[in-house]
Structures are given as C-alpha cells and as structure tokens.
Amino acid sequence: MIARTGGWIAAALLALAIGIFPYLGDLLDTRFPTSYELRLVMRAMILGIVVIGLNILVGFAGLVSLGQAALMGLGAHAAALLALRADWPFAACLAASVLVPALMGAVLAFPTVRVRALYLTVITIAFGFVFVNVLREWVSFTGGASGLASIPRPTLFGERLMATRAAGFNYYYLIAVCLMLALWVQWALARSRYGRAMRATAESENAARALGINVTATRTLAFAISAGLAGLGGGLFANLALFVNYETFTFSASIELLLMTILGGSGTLAGPVVGTAVLFAASQALQGLQEWQTFAYGALLALVLFLMPEGIVGGLARLRAKLAGRGAQERQTGAWPHFVPGFDALTQDRDEPGQATLITRDLTLRFGGLTAVNMVDMEVRSGTVHALIGPNGAGKSSLLNVVSGFYRASAGTVTLFGQAVKDQPPHVLARLGVARSFQNTELFGRMTVLENVLVGCHIRYQATLAETLLRLPRFLREERERLAEARLLLEVVGLTDFAGEQARNLPFGHQRRLEIARALALRPKLLLLDEPAAGLTHGEIEDLVALIRGLAARGMTVILVEHHVEMIMAVSDRVTVLDHGEVIADGPPEQVQDDRAVIEAYFGHGAPAAQATVPAQ
Amino acid sequence: MEAILQYLLTGLSVGSVYAMVGLGFYVMWSAAKAVNFNFGDIVMLGAVLTVVLMDVGVPLLPACLGAVAAAALLAAAIERGFVRPFNREANAIGWMLTTIAVGTMIESATTALFGSNPRRLETPLVEAPLRIGGSGIYPQELLLPVALLVVAVGLEFFYRRTITGRAMRAVAYNRTAAGLVGIDADRMTLLSFGLAGLLGALSGVLIGPVIQASATMGAIIGLKGFLVAIIAGIANARGVVIAGVLYGVSEKFIEAYLSTAARDAIGFSLMVLLLLLFPQGLFGKAEFKKV
Description:
The structure holds 2 protein chains of 2 kinds.
Chain A: H1 2-20, H2 24-28, H3 35-60, H4 68-85, H5 90-113, H6 117-137, H7 139-142, E1 155-156, E2 159-160, H8 170-190, H9 193-203, H10 205-210, H11 215-241, H12 251-264, H13 271-286, H14 293-307, H15 311-325, H16 343-346, E3 356-367, E4 370-381, E5 385-389, H17 396-403, E6 411-416, E7 419-420, H18 426-432, E8 434-436, H19 449-456, H20 465-470, H21 473-492, H22 508-521, E9 526-530, H23 538-553, E10 557-561, H24 565-571, E11 574-579, E12 582-587, H25 589-593, H26 596-603
Parallel strand pairs in A: 5-10, 5-11, 8-9, 9-10
Antiparallel strand pairs in A: 1-2, 3-4, 3-6, 6-7, 11-12
Helix pairs in contact in A: 3-8, 3-11, 3-12, 3-13, 4-5, 4-6, 4-11, 5-6, 5-11, 8-11, 9-11, 9-19, 12-13, 12-14, 12-15, 19-21, 19-22, 21-22
Chain B: H1 2-32, H2 40-55, H3 60-83, H4 94-114, E1 130-132, E2 135-137, H5 139-161, H6 163-173, H7 175-180, H8 185-211, H9 217-232, H10 237-257, H11 263-277
Antiparallel strand pairs in B: 1-2
Helix pairs in contact in B: 1-5, 1-6, 1-8, 1-9, 1-10, 2-3, 2-4, 2-8, 2-9, 3-8, 5-6, 5-8, 6-8, 9-10, 9-11, 10-11
C-alpha cells in the first residue's frame, strides 16, 4: 500500500517538476532554461516515451527488440511524410505515427514469436537495418541523406505549437502530456490481466497456455503497443525537429534505448523515466568520448547486467524490501482445504452429472519410433475422481498432455464435455474448462502469490483493452470481483498470509497448493493433476485427498496421475492402469488392486498374487 | 547465359559464407539453446586480425591461422563470461543482452583502433580475376564453396565419429541426461562456442579478400547467417547449408534483375514471409516441446 501511494506521489512530483521547468528562470530570477535546455528536456521526454514502450516489451513480455529506434523512425517518417506530401493535419499525422509502427510491430511479431521469442530479436535487427537502408537509398521519397526538411510547424486547434514563451511553451506541454499518458498506459497495463498475461508468458509459457492465455497473441500485442509508443515518440520528434533523416534511428540508437530500459530497471514502472534521465544526462557527458562513445554504451550495458540486473529502480526496491524485511511480521500458514462459504459459488460451472466428461477412442501418441500412448480408450464420468496409474514410462503424463492439448495425438479422438476437440491448442481447451497442474510445478516465480491466482482468472475477464486502459466501470468491477475470488481461493488453500510474496520464495508444499489454487481460479469443469502428491509430506497428502474429495463432491471431475497407491485407494472412484502406453486394467480401485495384469506390470511375471497386492506403502 | 553463370557462381560464393556463419549459429544453438548474438564480430575479427598480423610482418598463412585461432578463443571466452552466467533459467534473456553488449564493445573498439576505413586483405587469389565470358570472378570467390563443403563434411564427421562430437550431440539432445552419463555439459558448450567461432572466423578470413576487411563487415554477414539458420530450422545443419547457398544465389539474382539498393529489403521481407509460411523453418521438423 505504501509503495502504491509512493508511486502516485512520485508521478505527481515528476509532473510538477516537468510542469514548472520552463518557468524555472522566473522563480530563480535567472536566464534558465534557455531554448537549448528546453529542447534537451523535450528530447529526453520523447526518449522516455519510447523507453516506456520498450519496458513493456522487455520488462513485461520478456522479449527483446533491437529495432526500436527504427520503429521510432517509422513513426517520425510517417508523420513527416503525411504532413509534407499529403497535408494531413498534425493530430492525424500523430495518430498515424502511432498506428503505422504498431501495425508494423504486429506484422513483425506474429510470424516470429509463435516459434521462438528469440526470433523476434533477430527480425527486429533486420528490420532496423532494412529501414535505414530504404531511407538512404530511396532518395526521391525520403530525401536520402539530406532527409526530409521543412516539415510544417504543427498546429492544434488553430494554435501553432512551439516551445517558446510567446506560445506558452505549448509544444513542450504537449510532449509532457504524452509522456504522462505513456506512463498511464504502462501502469494500467501492469495492473490488469493484459500485463499479467505478458509477465506470465515470460515466466512460463506452458503454465500460461494451460491457463487459457494465447501466448502468440499476447506477445504480438506487447510488441504492437511497444512499437506504437516508439512511433509516438518518433512523431513528436519529427514535429519538434521539423527535420528527419535516417541517422537518428540507427542500430546504436536502439542499443541506447535498450540500455536506458535495463539501467532504469526493466519491469518496474519508474525504471524507464529514471533510466532515460540518467543515461540521457550521461550521454551529454559521454559525447566527449567520440568514437569510444558506443563502446562506453556497450561496457555500461554489460556492467549493469553483471552488477545490478534489476536496474536502479529494481535495486532500490530490493534494498527497501530488505530493510523492511527486518521487522516483518510472522506469517501463518492456514489449514487446508478450508472450504469457505463463498467457495461453492466458484465451483458452479460443472459438467452435467452422469455425463462422460472425457472420452478417448483409439488415442495414440508416437514420438518417432516410440509409441508412448497406444490405442487408449478411456471414459471419465463427470463428478468422479479418476486415477491414472502405471509404472514409470507407462505413458500417463503423455496421455494427460494430449488431453490438455500440449501434445498432438498421432491418431484417435478426444471428446471433452461432449465436444470433439482433437488438435485444439491448450489455451482453447482451458477456455472450455480444462485446468491442469504440472509434474514439475510451473509457477510464475517472479509474480506474487496473489498475481499467480489472478492469472488463473484471465479468461473470465470481458473488459476489452480499451476499457482496461481507460479504467472504465466494467473493468473496475471485474477486477474487484476477481481480486475477491483470488483472495478467497488463497484462503481455501491456506496461503492468505503469503499473498504478497513472490511465488518462487514459497516452500515446496506451498507451491503445490498455489498451483492448485491457480488452476481452480479457471473454474474448471475438469481438473488434471499430474503427480500432485510428489514431494509432499504425509500430512500434506491427507489434506490433498480432502481437497480432491471436496472438489468432486461439488461436481468437479478430477483426473489424477499418481504413484502414491494409498492415496489413490483413498481418493479415486475409478482407476485406469497403463503399461507401455496401453490400458491393462480399468475399474474401481479395489478391483484393480487385485488384478493379475496390474501386479505383473509392477512386479514382473511370477509375482505371487497372494503376497502382493499392489503395495500399499 | 554467361551472365546467369556469373550470378550463380558469385551467389554460390557469398551464399557459402552465409551458410558457414549459419552453421556457427547452429553449433551454438544446439549446445546452449543460446547464441552469441553478435557472432558477426567473430567473422569480422577473423579478417581484421589477419590484416593486423600481416601489418606486423606475419606471412599470409600463419596470419590467417593466428587470426582464426584468436577469434575462436575469444568466441569461447564470450560463452564462459557472458553467455553461461546469463543462461541459467529456462526463459533467460540475459545472454542476448550481454552478448549484444560485448559485441558492441568489440565492434566500436575495432573501429577506434583499426580505423573506420576498409582495408585490403591481399591474397594471391584476388590478384587477377578469372574470365568467364564477359565477366570476371576471383579464384578466392571460388574457394568459398570448396571451403563450405570441407567444413560441412568435417562438421558431420566430427559430430558423428569423434567422442567429443558425440558428447556435444548428447548435450544438444538432453543436457541433463548427458550430465548423468558423465559428460561435462558446460565444457561441451564452451567447446561448441569455440568451434562456432572457428567456423565464423574462417568464413571472415575467406571473404575478407573479396569484400575488404573493416570493423563493420561482420554485422550484416552475421545477421544474414542468423536469418538463414532460422529459415532453415535452426537445428538442421544440412538445411542451413542449403538455405545459406540459396539465399546467396537469390541475392545475386535480385541484384541483377530487380535492384541492388533494394536487395536486402527484398531478401529480408522474403525471410519474414517464409517464416510465416514455415514456422519451423524450411527443413525443420515440427518442434516437440516437452511439457
């Protein structure tokens, strides 16, 4: 809470400082700032806007662009060319300077990020290179090295925009307003499902997909927004300098922008402003280095990455947390499952009783020559707990991964909730009501416990991006409701006191609880648990059994991959046994326990049935 | 007809460089699932260091060998110092930033020390062009495809027949499992970056006489090599070789029939389009992401 108020105070102070800067001379009775200093501050504010965009990309979505200067140049040239060649009014030019790069960003991002985040970086380098190349060579259109000069001075509502006293420094204040808007966008994104989805995809792509997040779309959106802000900076720059050419938008300018982002603290809200201010000031000094200036940028970037990877703001925040941590209060781990009154409302989405929630027919999955799942027919009734067991390598997890859409079946059909779903990606299945946990817990480690659960609520937001950024009523209502839900789910798993803790700092057992709470936030009709008891203590397993039975009692269907036989006997309604990818037994637990084939699968041929039912620990 | 032969040969020549650089990216990626982003600088150093060594009186061949060895060592050192510490988590992006930082330092330091003007790298193979019909081509340019062939076959042999090569493949396939059977995965990664550096620096030495040595020569070659590797499907060596050569040849035809100025714009747009159509690359198999 303190941090939040602090943020608002800092933003207000920044606005105040920027606001009085042009009139500083009147207060101090000196000739300062001159038009030169005013211009420097305007350029710094413009860079700040671009760096905020880059921070959304690097700090939130975990993607790196090395063509950000070129995207800024694209915005600058769009604005300049439309003003020069098409006589567009300033406002329209500025809008184009946002939209053209944003569109270009989407075009560059979509083909690349769906394969590998890394590819985007390579393509942005290529884009930057081609952009400069085109500007230099296409002289008739862009003026080549002599650039586009004599861009008409911008006017808005009949006012000529200038940074002079006579004009009331109106262009200066326009840039300042744009900077504040960019900060607002960054803040509004960060505290919304969009920002959380971006950070989630950066932390764990698999977990994000399992929670219904379209990873490609999220990354494309992040880059489009980032490119749009770069373009806005470019458009403002073109109308400030009234001249553009390619020399401003080279690869080394992109590196400088990246350095500002990292130096300030990527992923923090204040980082872009701090990083831009510090580096911009330093670069005025570094200009004396001439040919070694670029070297200094490289060295500085390396230095920051080694010594304070979280940047100035991130480093300070850590320091403060350390100091505050000394007086931290005891945190109580609650008993779980704690089915609080509101919980029933969260589990109302269920498949109709008696239906087959999941049916697989002849389901087969091959990896090259290895058949991991072989002609599996399986039927799971709604509201039951269905265990999937078998020796190591029997294909249990593979089957789970096919059902949740992570692996593509080689043959056969999957029917979920009465709907054929073959080859649907995980995020689509999640939207149908399938949630899952992972064998190796996949939390969003750098997000807080509460944020992890909120990501689970992602698909149940209706508010659009515009509503979110403008903080319209629907967004506010939804956010309030989801927050209440998330807190309730944390209470159910007994983690209320840990809500503000980073997920990676939780002890292992708590991480398992959190992963389940996050999956429940999806309000699944079918919950897939992949070895949820692995690594848990005896007491924790008993709690887990109680939770699973409680969920089934509320109509949720649960499929459980597990080794822990005692637990399976206690919790399941039905058991399917796999061996070498094939179903070797299927039935109620007591029956499967005595099945000859099952015993042989676990112990080999000739195991005396009298001695060994499947071991109960 | 002769013109077409000329484009084919020069295209083959420049394409061989892209392919060799692309192979460097392939080798790095296989081992580390990370690369030296400014690998082009290793290419550049191969050529520039040769010139520097020859300046101080070292004869051509020892100078080439010395330059390649030094650049490869540097490539390995970059892995140890700048990639490994920043590639510990699954989704790490730190190594991108650090290798970009170190690449920027190398390139700007070279510009400052070596000068910003390109320098000739004299070899006997660029003294007189061979006449093919009306046009000429340097023997040096013809050396490049030969070198590519040797490098590609050598790499295949190394990966399949030597114990170190096999260990590298094991690491590429499954790092943890390779560790469990006693392979020092970190050491293999270091060696892989050194090996990639060898390929990169060699291609720099070989192309240097044709395009002249300069501090900035590596950036574009490195970028194209990377794109070629991506388009091929980064985990497929043969695909990288084919894609590299094809890209080189198409460049020459674009230059000849469309526009020299727009060559890279067209080439890169083509790459983006290909990636749109073939997300896994032209020769890559649909990737299996383990969950």
